């Protein structure tokens, strides 16, 4: 059910919102709020932006986390007022596919798989949660953990 693999993502450009706060106390509730904030403004993006896929890069440092809810945008694309844009460099990731209801199990499987493969999580790089919005009770999610 939880198949893991190594993938490479090229440099990506994103636009959206973020939240920074205490970890783990603020999560997942604040992550859901920032995704809802993005979803409520998806009509402000140009038609060439796929608003059915939400990218949520995040990083955790000790007990503080920053979590983003974004759409992938072409470099230099105009972004709606009040949103931020940034790019993530190319990385190799350990990837597992799960659902919005099995994220916790997905993380357990991908971290076990990373250890069994003998690769290391890349410190200082963002992990990414990718949500495929289907307006269903259970939606596909990919978890990407940067590795070296």
UniProtKB/TrEMBL annotation:
Note the superkingdom of the native organism.
Bacteria
Q: Name one Pfam family in it.
A: Cass2
Question: Which species?
Answer: Cohnella soli
**Domain AraC effector-binding, which positions?**
2-148
Name of the protein described by the UniProt record:
Effector binding domain-containing protein
> Which Gene3D superfamilies does the annotation name?
Regulatory factor, effector binding domain
